[in-house]
């Protein structure tokens, strides 16, 4: 069974840092593009970042570029999102999403992890 | 960047048919936008129903179908079931940017 389990969320002060993790199982992570998508509670979805299978290509939404870093460790079956200089507007549920082998699309969603940025 | 417009809410009777649409502020949605449809139930993560305009995943019930209608991406539900009550989001790729719609709350009543 394919599983993606997000963790690492919590309460962080504006300007602080947080590292989200996504533990995957049931498939070979190194074959797939991966993404992070966030959702403000009660609101819509927003794509945040994606990463190629070997980490050689990364892309970010403009609002997080330069502050967030997506990475992966295929040997540990894990995806990460390093969040630095966080802002109140980064408050959201963050989902890791498996893509396909050819594109950073959105096939299978993990359980989300909640990030709250507040003083 | 495109802004996608979805119906805020729709109601369908059990067994009935309903079409949800997704329009773009930048013009007609085409197959080149590789539109997606996602279903999200309260307290759960989204699931992907349709990709590349009209393709179902193995887990997508056959009663869901994707298409293009009148320059918009469309999701048609034929034979609605109570368990289809959920929020539905569309997504398109617009000039390389991934854009989500605001969602349609579908009530089965």
Which descriptors apply to this entry?
heterodimer; A: 119 residues; B: 109 residues; mainly beta; seven-stranded mixed β-sheet; four-stranded antiparallel β-sheet; 0% helix; 53% strand
Rg of chain A is 13 Å
Give the strand content of chain B: over 45%
Portion in beta strands of chain A: over 45%
Span from first to last CA of chain B?
36 Å
Q: Please give the number of β-strands of chain B.
A: 11
Order of helices and strands of chain A, N to C?
A: EEEEEEEEEEE
Stretches with pLDDT under 50, minimum 5 residues of chain A: none
Overall average pLDDT of chain A: 96
Helix content of chain B: under 10%
How are helices and strands ordered from N to C of chain B?
EEEEEEEEEEE
Say how many strands of chain A there are. 11
Distance between the termini of chain A: 40 Å
What is the tally of helical segments of chain A? 0
Describe the largest sheet of chain B. 7 strands, mixed
Tell me, what's the shape of chain A?
globular
Uncertain spans of chain B: none
Give the mean pLDDT of chain B. 96
What's the helix and strand layout?
The complex is a heterodimer of chains A (119) and B (109).
Chain A: E1 3-7, E2 10-12, E3 18-25, E4 34-39, E5 45-51, E6 58-60, E7 68-73, E8 78-83, E9 92-98, E10 108-109, E11 113-117
Parallel strand pairs in A: 2-11
Antiparallel strand pairs in A: 1-3, 3-8, 4-5, 4-9, 5-6, 7-8, 9-10, 9-11
Chain B: E1 4-6, E2 9-12, E3 17-24, E4 36-40, E5 47-51, E6 55-56, E7 64-69, E8 72-78, E9 86-94, E10 97-100, E11 104-108
Parallel strand pairs in B: 2-11
Antiparallel strand pairs in B: 1-3, 3-8, 4-5, 4-9, 5-6, 7-8, 9-10, 9-11
């Amino acid at each position: 069974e394919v599983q993606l389990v997000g963790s690492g969320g919590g309460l962080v002060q504006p300007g602080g840092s947080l590292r989200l993790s996504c533990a995957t199982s049931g498939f070979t992570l190194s074959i797939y593009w991966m993404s992070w998508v966030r959702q403000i509670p009660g609101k819509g979805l927003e794509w945040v970042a994606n990463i190629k299978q070997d980490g050689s290509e990364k892309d970010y939404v403009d609002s997080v570029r330069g502050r967030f870093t997506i990475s992966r460790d295929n040997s540990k079956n894990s995806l990460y999102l390093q969040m630095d200089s966080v802002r109140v507007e980064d408050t959201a549920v963050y989902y890791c999403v498996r893509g396909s082998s050819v594109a950073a699309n959105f096939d299978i969603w993990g359980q989300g992890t909640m990030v709250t940025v507040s003083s | 960047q495109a802004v996608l417009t979805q119906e805020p809410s729709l109601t369908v009777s059990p067994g009935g048919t309903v079409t949800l649409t997704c329009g773009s502020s930048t013009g007609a949605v085409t197959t080149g936008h590789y539109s997606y449809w996602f279903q999200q139930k309260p307290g759960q993560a989204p699931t992907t129903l349709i990709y590349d305009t009209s393709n179902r995943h193995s887990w997508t019930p056959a009663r869901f179908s994707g298409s293009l209608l009148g320059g918009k991406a469309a999701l048609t539900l034929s034979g609605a079931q109570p368990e289809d009550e959920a929020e539905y989001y569309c997504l398109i790729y617009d000039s390389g940017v991934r854009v989500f719609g605001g969602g349609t709350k579908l009530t089965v009543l």
